[in-house]
Structures are given as structure tokens and as C-alpha cells.
């Protein structure tokens, strides 16, 4: 399904907070899908929050075409818009994704960044109810997507060291898996590149890991989404022991 969402990005950029269980999130924005995704948002961020346009001013006013498939473990619609706006706004040319799943996000990023090469990793098939990468298989975008079937905790990431404009972490949700993927993400992103995590507001173990990373890196919660993000090569103090923010340097 395609929809034009520049209106939505403008609203996010103005920092308008919404309870999406009660209000629409923008003209033509798959209201029911967004609401369904947000029913699972039960925790509030303890790291600073910033809008997409605060983070990427170049995203304001852009028209984005969104291909979205609701269901299963796919990213929610609002977060998909935000990661698309970030990728497009920074003109990402090299993207690495942890957690292919069906490839909805993979194809979306490839479509939004027509000059980008994308690498995506997921476990080899073991009879799951889904086929990794099915959403982009046979599409025009597939020519720019490299699919790796391997365990990301043991995979050799050295060929990608310090080379990625954008790294998206959305694979395992256990603390040890998130920590391992995050450490690899911080190794392969280039200085000034972006690392973005899904499920910061929905999975306690993801949240715990990102809050720890935020003690050394300026991680922010992307307003109105489940995402957390940082720009590589900068450092700060993150959440303190009681959940507050101690400041930045």
C-alpha cells in the first residue's frame, strides 16, 4: 500500500504529541494500522526525545512513498515512516539492517534511497512461518540488496567496518542479542553515520540495552515512534541510575 506522508512528517517536526489511541496521526496515514501498532507502547522513554525534523531538518516537506504490510513482527507504520525519513534525509548510500524478517523495512529503505546498497542479515531458515526477504524477492529493489543468512552474534563484520551511513537494529530482543548486535552496529557505522533501533519503547530488554549505551553515546528516542537513534562519533552521558538524564558533553 502506498500513501503520501509529507503532512505527517510536518506534524512530527513541529513536535506535536498525540495519543494515537484517540486521535488521527495525519491525513491518509493508515490510522488503524498506526493505532494497532501503538497499543503495544506501554513505557515512556528515559532518554531525551527529539522529533524527526529536529534530528534531520532535511526531512521536512519531503514526500515519502511508504510500502507497508501490517502483521506479524513487522515494524509499526509510524516507525517505518520515521526510519524512511531519516534514511532519505541523510541521503544514505550504504545501509546495514540487523533482522530481515520478511524484508518490508529492507525494501522500503531501498525504495526511499535509490542510490543505496543495502545489506541485511537474519538467521538461516529453520521452518519458521515466514520466508526471510520475501517482501523484496523479485522486485526492482532486490538488485541493490545483499541478503545474508547467518547468526549475527558470530558473523564476521570486519568487511563492513566503519563504512555504513545507516545501521538499523531490529533483530533479537533478548538483552544479550541486542547488546551483541548493537556493538557490531557501532563498529560498522561510519563516523557521522546513524544507528537506529526499533522497539525501544516496547521491549524491556531492548530498552535496558539502549539505556546503557546512552551513558556513553547521545542516544535519543524518536518522538512518536518506538525508535531510538544516535549519530556515531559523538559521546555523552545518558540515563542515570534513577532513570533521569544526567546531561551531555
If you had to describe this structure to a student in words, what would you say it looks like?
With 249 residues, this protein is α/β, with parallel strands linked by helices. The chain is 27% helix and 16% strand. The protein has one domain (6-231): Rossmann fold. The longest helix has 14 residues, at 175-188.
List the helices and strands and how they pair.
Elements: H1 6-13, H2 31-38, E1 49-50, H3 52-55, H4 77-89, E2 94-98, H5 104-112, E3 117-122, E4 145-149, E5 164-169, H6 175-188, E6 189-197, H7 204-213, E7 220-222, E8 228-231
Parallel strand pairs: 1-7, 2-3, 2-5, 3-4, 5-6
Antiparallel strand pairs: 6-8, 7-8
CATH superfamily: Vaccinia Virus protein VP39
Structural class: alpha/beta
The dominant shape is: globular
Helix content: 25-40%
From the alpha-carbon coordinates, what is the Rg to the nearest angstrom?
17 Å
The percent range for strand residues is 15-25%
Count of DSSP strands? 8
Task: Name its key features.
globular; disordered N terminus; about 15% strand; about 250 residues; alpha/beta; disordered C terminus; Rossmann fold; about 25% helix; 8-stranded mixed beta sheet
Overview in brief:
The chain is of the alpha/beta class and 249 residues long. The protein has 7 helices and 8 strands, in the order ααβααβαβββαβαββ.
